[in-house]
Amino acid sequence: MTDRFDDKALLKAIHKGGRQLEQAMHYLLRKSGWQEGIGQYIKSKSGSREDVEDVFQEGVRHLIVNVRAGRFHQNSSVKTYLSSICKNLWYTKFTREVKLKEIKNQLPPAPEGTPGPEHHLILNEKKELLNSVLDQLGNTCKKVLSLWSLGFSFKEIGEETSQSAGTVRKQKFDCMKKLTSLMAARPDLVKALKE
Predict the structure, then answer these.
(1) What is the number of other CB atoms lying within 10 angstroms of the CB of residue 179?
(2) Rg of the chain (C-alpha set)
(3) CA-CA distance, 163 to 50, in Å (whole number)?
(4) Residues whose CB falls within 8 Å of the CB of residue 157, separated by 6 or more in sequence, listed in order
């Protein structure tokens, strides 16, 4: 794996997709050191370590989407562009949180029955139920569907799974069909997920 990327190699890897995109993401998130600089800015604006991680990961996602959509015109370095994205994300998040605090302070206390810890427990149970259904699909289906849901093209998924784009397209169709029939066979599960 490449330990360092210059801007040209980084942009090429993002456009290429598949394994090269994964390597570029690993570099951006773990090896570039760019998060520290952005983190200093966010912390100076009342952000926490968790805020830094969340904003940086979201910033990397925006960077990748913008590069692949042709919205990055290379008027600046990739690092400067990513920093700008992250600063805008933090400004939006911080402003939203400040407004939310103001609104909460103006509202009367929440009535009883407001979702509490038990609500989060129920959500986690639903997540586990859904994961149990996805486990029944098998590893290949899980991988194809997860990559497809992340926006990978059939060609990129094919490169990742050593198959042709046509084979992956058929697999995705078959996996969705299998998932639909599994859900249809478990009306109790569908009901539990909807509640």
Answers:
(1) 16
(2) 21
(3) 38
(4) 144, 147, 148, 163, 165, 168, 172
Q: Dihedrals φ, ψ of 58, to 5°?
A: -65, -40
How far is residue 124 from each of residues 85, 120, 130, 187, 188, measured CA to CA in Å?
31, 6, 10, 19, 17
pLDDT tens-place string over residues 83-129:
999 999 998 888 887 777 777 777 666 566 566 566 667 777 777 87
CA distance 143 to 174: 13
Contact 76, 67 (CB under 8 A): no
Residues 123-150 have pLDDT tens digits of: 777 778 777 777 788 888 888 888 888 8
Cα–Cα–Cα angle for 139, 141, 145, rounded to 5 degrees? 120
Q: How far apart are CA 6 and CA 136, in angstroms?
A: 42
